[in-house]
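Bumping with the actual sequence this time:
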Amino acid sequence: MIVDIRKFDLDSSITDLVKASEIRKTWYGKITDTYWDYLNKTTTNIDCKFYSHLFSDLLVYFIDEKGIKLGLRDYGEQISKNRNHAVFIFALDDKENILNLIKQENFTENFEVFCKDLNGSFYSYTRNDVNETLKNFKNTLSLVDQKIGLILNIG
């Protein structure tokens, strides 16, 4: 599983990002896919050290278990549909909501219980893995401000 995280300017057109995510096929079979080229031209890749499966579980926990609704989720969902992989877009309000959740008492313990239930006999994360993933995610979220958002591609 690959986790690709990019920093982008929120003033840029999100609709251009959605349009670039579309894979087009001509009547004679030529496929045009400009998504990664568009991202490489308009965003900055962030080198993050995540346990990709644990990070994916963390996103599931935030969205499904804790009910976090990302402000730009409609765009992320459309890009996910176009790309056939998960795409999440984080803005300042999302950052604040997630950081407030992580600060809650027993967050780590509750997340571990969720992961054990989710993964069953395949659960193999250590407390250190969980703490490292949370630390790296908080550091990555620290890049988000009024003008800068994050795009996460997971696939």
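The tokens above came from a reply further down the thread. The beta strands are 3-9, 23-25, 31-33, 43-46, 86-90, 148-154.
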